[in-house]
Amino acid sequence: MEKAIKRYMPIFVLPTLAAFTVGFIAPFLVGIWLSFCKFTTITDAKFVGFINYAKVFGDATFVHSLWYTTLFTIVTVILINFLAFAVAMALTAKIRGNYLFRTIFFMPNLIGGIVLGYIWSLLLNGILAIWMRTLTYSATYGFWGLVILMLWQQVGYMMIIYIAGIQNIPSDLLEAARIDGANKWQELRYVILPMLMPSITVCTFLTLTNGFKLFDQNLALTNGEPSQKSEMLAMNIYTTFYGRNGWEGVGQAKAVIFFIIVGAVALTQNYLSRRKEVEQ
Amino acid sequence: MGAASSLPEGQRGYVMKKMRRFTALGLTAAMAVTALAGCGGSNTASTTAAATEAAKTEAATEAAAPAEQTASGGKVYYLNFKPEQADQWVDLAKKYTDETGVEVHVQTAASGTYEQTLKSEMAKSEAPTLFQVNGPVGLATWDDYCMDLKDTDVFKDLESEDYALKNTDGVVKGIAYVIETYGIIYNKKILNDYIALDGAKISDISELNSFDKLKEVADDMQAKKDELGIEGAFTSAGFDSSSDWRFKTHLANLPIYYEYKDDNIGSTDAIKGTYLDNFKNVFDLYITDSTTEPSLLSGKTGDDAASEFALGEAAFYQNGTWAYNDIKGNEVADEDLGILPIYFGVDDASQGTCTGSENFWCVNDKASDADKQATLDFLKWVVESDAGRESLSKEMGFVTPFSTFADYLPANPLVVAANEFNKDKTPVSWNFTTMPSEQWKNVLGSAMLEYAQGTGDWDAVKTAFVDNWATEYKNANS
Question: What is the ipTM of this complex?
């Protein structure tokens, strides 16, 4: 049977591989190539070497959006995971209607980022109007607006992953802990959390990369205002690409740097939290 | 599975568990990917809107296209810039196809995404044969893609060569097809109500003939807004991206215009900012005598301003002839619409409204010869045939720079008012097409907003205007 699987492997792998190549690998490689070019459309690219990369670091908005994004990611990773875990713990306890609550908490995920951004900009601007302010009044308002939006959207999703993890913890382990005299806190610290490490790995990975890659919500909620101060990395790349004649390559170079940063951060995170996982 | 079943009991359980865990991980990963794909999908919300529009137009044009083709076999693909006239272009293309059998495909980019759409469409094998650029800076990007239009009929139909866009070598690369005008649109009814009040600063609208007078009246109207039943003298100077171009681009045209005029130049690599104080005065007027608190401006949209004016909540509204479609059919009657120049306190006696074009047709030089010919034939038909002229002037409401349009003038009351006003004045030309980059406009707009809401000062606006001009010029031309 194994032999058969090996023999037919290409048939099973090829369709996906082909789609992956067309949809991901090819554009990715072209993208890297274009970061070394000056171009208007991707068909008339001219090789210019590292000039684009040199321009990236001369651009103050890039550095600003880099730390702004980093700060945003740190805050959202912590808050989303903490809240998602808390909600998951609450909704795995025996309370009335917990399936209904799970569904309700999950629903914000089904709304697209742009729509969500516009809805929340109406909501938050409506509240801020009491103090005669708007979201784009300063980058601080934009920052917390984005944090609130992301919490609302992602907590429910991460909650589902945590619930799945919690339900997978064998009840005999918990029972044994209780018989050994563990209190609620010890149960959480020494049984539930270690057993949940795979879920935590997945959730931190997702929130981390989501935080770095955030674009739609940023575009719809603040559009980088004021003065590009609430502009995150992905949006900074976008505005660079379309903001000036001949800067398409610089935008592309920023995208490559962006990829390297996100890749490095995600791999490090994965390595670190994988080490903490235990076998059941 | 085969491997697991041959293992001893205890180990088998271990492997099974491990596999289950991987399956679970795999499933969560799959869910994550779906979710991410879902998020990714919404990135393209705006382009999807364009695509739906395109699908509609495609269906329309293709349904109309007869199987036969002309001898040359060329076809036309027009990437239209103006969403306001999207349907009219499709209808016109259909008429042309019915008449000649040549396939004309019209696609309209969603508002504010023309440059993005053009860039991606141009990279396709079925690239637009007819597209547009917004002036010299836009042309710099697309110069290699624009054919020389010197010997074409549509160029010969221009009233004056001034309406053609030439590149730095003097080659004709673009043809303006619509002339537009902007200034301060006003509501005659509210102004007459004001004049009827005791202690009004003017006794007739014609006395509004300078910046000082305008400011005096606007200040007084603002003070008496409750008596007049208005929210403010000027509509909100919103800085949402649907509105900020009225200031960072259109208002900023005036200091550039006067500086170019002094120096007798048409573009520059470094602006001096001689008239920035006048610029500040006008902008101060907009944000002080306004319907809106300055701290709320960042969220105000173009629709907000248009509706404030259309509902009679404000008397003055800086915008152009194209705004008529948004205003008409509401509280303000057509005969109450008037337009003033943006008085700048420099040469108010002879300053007209701002009149010019940022819409230039270009023909794709990289298209096949047959397609290029088909496109030029189509353009000729648009500006010379009855159907084309009727559509452009009446349905789309364009004032065109073509000599063939003498008997075809649009019914837009703002156009009529502007023409009337400009009779013995010098219109202000559109020099904002020489602004070094989009980035320059954005930085200026943000600095203006921060000044308006009090989080920044005017020096930052000056820096964004003067210093950043040189920086951006260098960036865009290096």
Answer: 0.72
